Automatic annotation (TrEMBL):
PROSITE patterns, sorted: HTH_TETR_2 (PS50977)
Lineage top rank: taxon: Bacteria
Residues annotated to bind DNA: 30-49
Entry's transmembrane regions: none
UniProt entry tagged with the keyword DNA-binding: yes
Organism: Algoriphagus halophytocola
Pfam families linked: TetR, TetR_N
Keywords: DNA-binding
Keyword hit for Nucleotide-binding: no
The protein's name in its UniProt record: TetR/AcrR family transcriptional regulator
Chain ranges of the HTH tetR-type domain: 7-67
């Protein structure tokens, strides 16, 4: 039986930082808090990540790798509708895993220029990947002609919804869209007017098979 791989100090720091940032926000946590959380000296943490921006860059790199893996995990034997639905479910889980980054994104982009640059570069990549997803929708006959005239706007609304989903939950807690799975339902609500009848049939099949949340 293989022994579990021991985490490197750098990885422990990243995981502890994510946990504490998720709980208290980026500005509420210092490197000393993180070092204390994993029982290392402040100097040891500083050796690996000299500034908070260095640490945020490392976290963003982890996020980027995980998100890229989600996009790359498209199943060839699944329809475009099913692949998108599974992707959306994973996106919502991703939001909670890196909760602080989505809630504090405006503050992060204003305070850390190098991180802001990386975020913008990543968003350009995601924009292209989203366009590829919907190109597959068109190829499989799942989008109406009306979609062609509003494609950029619809895709932008979807990206905004995903990016700021947790923020709206914080600001509008009295609304009824706070449970897991609601983000996925909202995206499909945006898309429904532009789906062909065959797409709607496929959507129903996919919902019955997978539901709206990760099991």
């Amino acid at each position: 039986m293989e022994k579990p791989t021991k985490l490197k100090t750098k990885d422990k720091i990243i995981l502890e930082a994510i946990a504490q940032y998720n709980e208290h926000g980026v500005q509420g946590i210092t490197s000393r808090h993180i070092a204390g959380g994993i029982g290392i000296s402040h100097g040891n943490l500083d050796y690996h990540y000299k500034t908070k921006e260095d640490l945020l860059i490392a976290i963003h790199s982890k996020m980027r790798e995980e998100m890229t893996a989600l996009y790359d995990n498209q199943q060839e034997d699944c329809s475009a509708v099913e692949n998108l639905h599974l992707l959306l479910i994973q996106f919502e889980e991703f939001q909670y895993k890196f909760r602080f980054f989505n809630l504090d994104v405006l503050e992060i982009t204003r305070s850390f220029p190098e991180v802001s640059k990386l975020i913008r570069e990543t968003l350009e990549i995601r924009k292209a990947q989203t366009e590829e997803l919907f190109e597959k929708f068109k190829q499989e006959g799942y989008l109406t002609e009306e979609y062609g005239g509003v494609a950029d706007r619809v895709q932008h609304i979807i990206r905004m919804t995903i990016s700021f989903w947790l923020s709206q939950r914080e600001v509008l807690p009295f609304y009824h869209f706070t449970e897991k799975g609601e983000m996925v339902k909202t995206i499909w609500t945006i898309l429904t007017p532009y789906l062909t009848e065959s797409a709607k049939d496929e959507y129903q099949r996919v919902i019955e098979k997978h539901g709206f949340t990760q099991l």
